[in-house]
Every structure is written in C-alpha cells, then in structure tokens.
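Example 3.
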Amino acid sequence: MKGKILYCIVLNILICFQLISPVIAQEPAYQNYTYSYEKIPFAESQAYIPTDIISGISLGVGAFNTPKDVFVAKDGKVYIVDSGNNRIVILNKDLKLTGILSEFINNGKKDTFKNPNGIFLTDYNLMYIADTDNGRIIVLDENYNFITEYGKPKTNLVTKDFPYKPVKIAVDSALRIFVVSLNVDKGLIELDKDGNFETFYGAIPVNPNIGMLFWRAIATNEQKSRMTLELPTEYSSVDIDETNFVYGVVSVTGANSTFNPNNLIKRLNPFGNDVLKRNGFFPPSGDVLFDYVKGVPQNSKFSDVCVRPYGIYSTLDSKRGRVFTYDENGNLLCVFGRYGEQMGDFGNSVAFDIVNDTNYLVVDAKYNHIVIFKPTEYMNLILNATRLQYERKYSLSEQMWSQVLKYSSKSDLAYDGMGRVLLRQGKNKKAMKYFELANDRQLHSKAYGAYRDELIGKYFNIFLVAVILLWILLSILIPAYKKRKRRDMQK
Amino acid sequence: MIDLIKKLKYSLHVIFHPFDGFWDIKFEKRANTLSAISILAILVLVFMLQQQLTGFDFNLDFRNQVNILTKIGLVLIPYFLWCISNWCIVSLVDGQGSFKDIFITTAYALVPLIITSIIMIIMSNFITLQEGYFYYLVGSIGYLWSGFLIFCGFLTIHQFSGLKTIVTILLAIVGMFIISFLSILFFALVQQMINFLILFFREISLRIL
C-alpha cells in the first residue's frame, strides 16, 4: 500500500515536470475538417498527425535555405531540393542522410546548380533537375553522373527574349518531359525524349463571362487598354500517374470574372484534354467556402500536387497551408495542415510528396524544414476502403466503411461508400437508404431505378393478370348496368 | 359551402375554355372573392406539400431548413404585388377590370399550377433523374399554361386588344419591381428613423435625466 502511494506520488511529480509524457501521440492543435454536401465545413476526425520534422541541422548538413521541392523515388530514396544552397540533399528510405549533390562534371568541367526548383526521377532513377536560374534541365543517371542538359526550347511559339525558367518537371514512362516554366500561360511545355520542343500541352482556358464580353464590345480602345487583361493562368506544379496521365495544379487565378473551380486541378490525357473526374458534391478545388476581397476570390492556391496509387491524389494549398486529398471520383477524403507557429504548422508550404504511400513530407520554404505527417487509424480505414473499392473488393470495402462510420457518424463519404457497395451487390433498397444519408442524388436515383426494375420484374405478372381480370369484369358489368338503366328508363 | 365547391369546380371549366370562362366570371358572377382566396390557399398548401412530399431525387430543399412562413410569403407577396401593380397600370390606361376582377382572374389563372404541381409530386416519387426531363416538362407546361390564362383573362376582363394586354402585363411586372423597391426603401428609412429616435432619447436620458 505504502509502495503504491509512493509510486503514485513519484509518477505525478514526473508528469508534472514533464519528465515523462502521459500521452505519446502528438495531436495537432487544430481540428481537421471536411465539407458537407451543402458546402458547409464541419469538424472531422484527425486524418494526419505531424510526427516529426527534418531540418538541415537535424541531418547535420547545415540549415536548409528556402527548399523548394521534395521527391520520393520508386526505391524510397528522398531527394530534397535545397534551392537557396544550390544543392540536392539525398536521404534513404529511413530518412537518414546518404549524400549531398551540389556539383557534377559537365564536358570535363565542374558545373553547379543555380537556384534549382524542381526534381523528378523516373522509375529507373534517371534524374531530371529543373535548374531554374541557369534556364536548363539537367539529366543525371542513377550514380549522379551528368548525361545531358536541355536548354531553352527552340520554337517559334515564344519570343527570342523570353526568359526560360523551368521550375517543375514530370517525365512519363516514354521519357516525354513536361515542364512548368515561370510566366508561361500557354500550358505545360512538352519536350520529347531528346529534349526537343514538341508542343504546349493542356493550356488552361479563359472563361470570359457575358458581362465582360459586353463591356469589351462597347469600350473604346483607350478604355480597353486600361482594362485588366484576362490572361490564362499558369500551372504551378505537375505530377504524373502510373498510366501517364499528367496532373497539373494552378496557384494564380484571375479575378472574380474568370474564376472557375474546374480550372484549379487538371488531369490531362495524352492529347492535353482535361479528364479529371468531378463526380463529388463539388469539383476538386480545395476550399469550397471562401470569401471575396474586392471582388477577388480567396480560393485555394495550389503549389503542388501528388499522385498516389488507386486514383487518389493530394494537392497542397499555399494560401492557407492545407493538404486536400481526393479519390478518383473527386470526393474529398480529408483536409489537414494550417499556417501557424506550432509544431507541424507551416510557414510557406511549397511542395510535398509521399513516402511509400503512407507518410507525407511537406516542404516549408519559410521555416526551412520538412514536416512528416502520419495517417491516423481513421484515415487508414478510409484509404483502405477506397483502395478496396478501386480493386472491386466490395464486401471488404463495406466492412471498412462501416468502421469509418464508427469514427464519424456524419461522414457523407462513408455512407456513399456503403451505398456504392450495396448497389454493386444488388441490395438496391438498402443502397437507397445509404445514398439518402449521404445526400447523393445521382446514385440514389440510380439505385431507385434498379429497385423499380426489380419491383416491376417481380410484380408485373400479377399486375397483368389483375388488369385482364378487371377488364373482363368490367366488360361484363358495364353492358349489364347499361341494359338495366335502359330498362329503368323505359319503365 | 355547396356554392363554393360549385365555384371552385368552375375553375376546371375556365382553364380549358379561358375566354368563355373569364367572361362568365366577370359578367355572370360564376366566381367570387371567397373562391379566389380558396384557390390561393390551395396553391399555398400544394407548394408546402411539394416541399415535403417531392421524392428525394428531385427535392433540393434542405429538409432541416423548412419555414412555412417563407413558403406562404413566396406565394402571397408576389401575388398581391402583381394585383396592385396591375390595377395601378390598368387604371391609367382605362381598363374595364376592377381590383376584384384582377384578383379573381389571377387566382383562377393559377389553377394549372396547382394541377401540375400535384402531378409533379406524384411523378417525382416514381421516376429517376434520367427521366427528369418529363418532370421538368410538366413544370414548364404548368407555368406556360398559367401565363397564357393570365393573358386571356386580362384580355377579357379589361376589354383590351392583344398588344395592349401584353404591354400592360410587362408594365405591371416593372411596376412590381418599383413597388418592392419603394417598400424596401420605406422600411429602411423607417428603420433609420427609429434608430435615430432611440439614440436621441438615450442621449437625452443619459445627459439630462
């Protein structure tokens, strides 16, 4: 007994002076949220929790200076583009330092980077680096030996003095290169595997509205010259999925008149057409509830995009420091992150990537570090359910969704997932109930159509027999009734 | 009561034989204010039922935000605005119809809306979104039919030519906007005045009393 009291006192002292911590998991100071179908945000279970921070100092390579990009290669190696220090820091799978790349041999001479902004590695570890201020793309092999460099694309479509500043790169399996260059509003620059200019790819359209066109039509030339130009917006980052579809995001958007939520995230097919699925309650565009300051929408401004397996993709918002994750149909899976001063908060979120499809690495160019986010149990359930649905393992997916509902009984996503599974299994009546809970009218209608067909198939025979019987009955009764009436009249 | 039912039943004749029907309403007293009010009440009721009973697929109203008063207001305020505005315009251009005529005619012209709304409620529970065109078609027919009846009715009760009727109807719509603008302005001014008086008395009570 005495021992127990002593033990308690010691434990209390230790906890009070924070010599041991009673809680091991680190909760962020803010609540994660998601949007209901009415575009109203509501608190949601935590999806990702910041667990650790990597900085240049913690790695022992000297502080980072405005890092701009991070890339996780197929083999798990992590490449951090430390732009201010003109170097690339390479970590292994366990996020331990393996090397620093700051110079290479180019035609027998030593060459260095000048403010590199982006990096991409193919599946066979061919390394493409956007050497921004040198205006070139550098290609290195798996041992970081120089192979070649691609300078300014030779084409008549740009003027001679056009400054070529490649910032982000993606390379598909046929080694076609997609480059995001600063101040290019014609889309992505597509280069073939030898670095020759192919075309501008996937330009973002301007959507003028009627009012704008009207004022332009009646304005004098002088007035027109003073109007703001409605230019197409530029891509800010690019990524590529397993099937060579290119994902692009936009950080700068025009004024109110040209704002279109469909233009913020693009999934481009080989022809450069947008094929992103937007079947959710609203198109994937980050925050759907935002205000306008002097007519300018304060929507999310995406600085990076990260494609994950099973059609899932995430976008990084640099306006409010948030990461939005969507499934292949465009349903919002989760939102996390914010700007702030506490552990795991961002100062300027510029790029991110994902380590073996679990942990996010978010690069912070202001605090000069990288924050690691780990999925919670709740998020793992959602991801697993989405994956199982993608793989058409519906009964397993149903189990996952029902567990998600235990965490969050308000989750439209989970109700919708349950409904989809039930619909596939042919339990139309039950599916209708779940779609109603999820407020999904499209799928509810589909389930109802199937249910109605089911009912018709079941009762059509009885209905037909009833109609024929009724018809026979009436054809006997009506003449008899008429006859009687006539007889009454005659009387 | 039997008289009222007879008058309401007459509306079914009116919607299929508008010229004949509205003539009889005006000159043969086949309808009165009570029957017009009853039709309005039924219209409000049907609109409320529409919100509650329309099938899930077609019901975009959020069921947790139902407010009966706004539903009533949505029917009655435009209705009275329309009648007043039309009466004002028609008095200026020597129309034959009185305010009562306008009131009754408009109410009887809205009967197709009641019928199509009921059909829409029933339909919405049995069709899917893919077949939604029929649903919206029925709705459009209701509005067009009612619009046509309003045109015919006003032609008859005011003894106007067709063009004059259209012009007065358009002017009446403009008039509705003017009336609503003026009333909003009036309420805003009264509110300002009341606020000023409250402030004034508060100031006095704090400084002098």
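The CA atoms of residues 22 and 96 of chain B lie 13 Å apart. The mean pLDDT of chain B is 90.
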